[in-house]
Amino acid sequence: MGNKVKVGLIGTGNIGRIHIENLQKYPEDCDIVAVTNTTLSKAESCAAEFNIPFVEKSADELIARTDIDAVIIAVPNQFHTPLTIQALKAGKHVLLEKPMALNQEDAKEILMVKEATDKIVMMAQQMRFEWAAQHVREQIERGELGNIYMAKTGWCRRKGIPAWGTWFTDSKKSGGGPLIDIGVHMLDLALYMMGNPKPVSVFGSTYSEFGPKQKGIGSWGSPDWDGIYDVEDIATAMIKMEDGATLLLEASWAAHMDCDEEPHLSLYGSEGGVVLKAVDERFVGGKFLTEQFDRVVDIEFNEPEGFIHGRTLLVKHFIDCIKEGKEPIASAMDGYKTQIILDAIYESARTGTVISLGW
């Protein structure tokens, strides 16, 4: 495909607008043709701000447009599966916000429809594209860290429950709490950095001590005090891989804990380790941990000045994959694998047992 990729956006909230801002950095490669939102006035305001020519009254009308090649889906979790499947059947490529679906059954349905087409489904996992993550991944592929046998990762907020009482805190609409909201980012990144090992078992726990009491409320979103809160405040899990490696994962919206409310990731290798450093929810550097001449050695690394941020590179990669017909770095299969693990953590927390993963 030598021409520009024509894109439609479903969902003009914060994340949708971020996608627009980044896509418009590549006017030679793509055009945003139309947007839609359940609140039409918000779609109209967004279109006016970003000079987008068309506003559709519904997702159905946007997906039906014959002049659109790809759709970005940036809407609440409950709509991910039906809209992705609808877009694929209409012959569109899809950039899908996390999580892939509410559960692995829905995620598998997306995967099956995708495999029956020649269309791309890419997960919007921007952390994979940050410079620090790519730099470390290069060193791992060169063998500098040896065998990665363990990793610790998570994203912990001390007082950050978003939009209490809205779809965020309703399990039927969100699929869960911080685990599926922000923990999914760290789970995806850790698996990517570890070389995509095959997970075989999960033991997890979830706790809900703040939300039911309307405590731990963050500043993001507008609460609906007549709504419900039936998700977790915090989740933790141990994931065992087929090669023997272990991944420790934690995610919280609210907890009495000493944390800087940034994501974290540490890798433990036979020849060296890594700790990534986050600023404003982005990994911008870190340090390699190793040993030379019988002494411990720390080697710091920092994002070079002027580096293009991960979200910008993410949309460029999506467009390039469409134009070149290649599989994206964050594929539908990656999203499905992550969804299986998320479901297993919730099931383990419910039953108190180790969950074996069937593939």
Automatic annotation (TrEMBL):
Gfo/Idh/MocA-like oxidoreductase C-terminal domain residues: 137-357
Domain Gfo/Idh/MocA-like oxidoreductase N-terminal intervals: 5-124
Pfam families with a match to the protein in the record: GFO_IDH_MocA (PF01408), GFO_IDH_MocA_C (PF02894)
Gene3D superfamilies to which the protein is assigned, alphabetical: Dihydrodipicolinate Reductase, domain 2, NAD(P)-binding Rossmann-like Domain
Top-level division of the source organism's lineage: Bacteria
Annotated family: Belongs to the Gfo/Idh/MocA family.
Annotated protein name in UniProt: Dehydrogenase
Naturally occurring in which organism (per UniProt): Peribacillus deserti
